[in-house]
């Protein structure tokens, strides 16, 4: 079987899943990998056949999206040309982890065997938690950026039969958790300067702050700033007392698996993170709407009294891939285009 596996190189989640799934897919297929987005040129522990610019958003400095940079650095014409140039007729199966170029190409070419395998499709599932505040634009983008009918998702909880629990990477599963007293911070929507201003107001706590906006290690008072280096992050993550992070998917899931104290701050105007925050809240995780001097009292309380939530997520990676390949082989054997019999992912 010839397979294309496509994912955006943004955030830890897509990349972590790719690093788990690609070796398994390589065992059973002739695999090509596509990566898109601003980090498409970063080295990966596997061969990458296609590197494309795709479509993405960029984080700001104070907890939200940088709308100007997102508008300036994305091009519908460029993305359209990439979609037209990606020929999928040689692939028996196309798997898109919320990667828009491959998804739109498969939809445009009416590829008979394509599937979205992502966290985002689980977020949009009708059974998954949603915030009370409506975000029609955010919901519309989430529903249409990966226009594939077949969907299998990942979430913090298995809300439906087509939703698996998180794929916890082997690097995390092999760690031995301990507590050296520091707190690990990963908030890419905030600038290092802003984080230093807020976190230095609690001088008795040692903060390990990881950011893609930091080029080299530096210490400023009680704040230690690190580049977003995976090995250093894993060491700090395993030995910290707690995690302060955005409402993405991978880092909170790993914190739950490790049984670390967890405080989540969802990115402003980012619908997926608002949905994630609601799901985590229902699991007993504390949510902070935004990070500011006004929230220091809440932050101090969390540092002193919060009890960790621990979820022992099973390793289902091989099971997921086997199920996906078996269903795809049956579909290929039928020799017909997939037509969904019921709508399970609605508004």
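^ structure tokens above, recovered residues below v
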């Amino acid at each position: 079987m010839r397979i294309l596996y496509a994912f955006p190189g943004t955030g830890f989640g897509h990349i972590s899943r790719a690093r788990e799934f690609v070796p398994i897919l390589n065992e059973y297929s002739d695999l090509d990998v596509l990566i898109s987005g601003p980090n498409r040129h970063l080295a990966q522990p596997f061969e990458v056949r296609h590197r494309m610019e795709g479509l993405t958003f960029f984080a700001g400095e104070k907890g939200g999206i940088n709308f100007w940079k997102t508008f300036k650095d994305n091009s519908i014409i460029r993305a359209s040309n990439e979609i037209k140039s990606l020929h999928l007729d040689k692939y028996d199966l196309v798997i898109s982890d919320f990667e828009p170029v491959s998804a739109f190409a498969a939809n445009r070419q009416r590829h008979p065997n394509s599937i979205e395998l992502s966290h985002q499709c689980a977020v949009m599932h009708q059974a998954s938690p949603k915030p009370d505040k409506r975000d029609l634009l955010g919901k519309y983008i989430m529903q249409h950026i990966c226009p594939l009918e077949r969907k299998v998702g990942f979430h913090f909880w298995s809300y439906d039969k087509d939703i698996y629990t998180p794929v916890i990477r082997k690097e995390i599963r092999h760690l031995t958790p301990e507590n050296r007293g520091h707190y690990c911070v990963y908030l890419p929507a905030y600038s290092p300067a802003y984080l230093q201003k807020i976190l230095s107001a609690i001088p008795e706590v040692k903060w390990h702050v990881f950011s893609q906006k930091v080029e080299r290690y530096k210490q400023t008072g009680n704040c230690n700033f690190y580049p977003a280096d995976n090995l250093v992050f894993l060491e700090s993550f395993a030995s910290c007392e707690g995690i302060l992070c955005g409402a993405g998917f991978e880092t909170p899931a790993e914190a739950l698996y490790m049984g670390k104290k967890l405080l989540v701050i969802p990115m402003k105007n980012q619908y997926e993170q608002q949905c994630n925050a609601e799901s985590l809240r229902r699991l007993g995780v504390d949510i902070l709407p935004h990070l500011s001097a006004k929230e220091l009292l809440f932050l101090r309380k969390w540092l002193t009294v919060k009890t960790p939530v621990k979820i022992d997520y099973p390793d289902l990676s091989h099971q997921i891939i086997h199920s996906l390949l078996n269903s795809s082989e049956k579909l290929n054997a039928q020799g017909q285009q997939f037509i969904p019999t019921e709508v399970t992912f609605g508004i």
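The chain has 13 helices and 14 strands.
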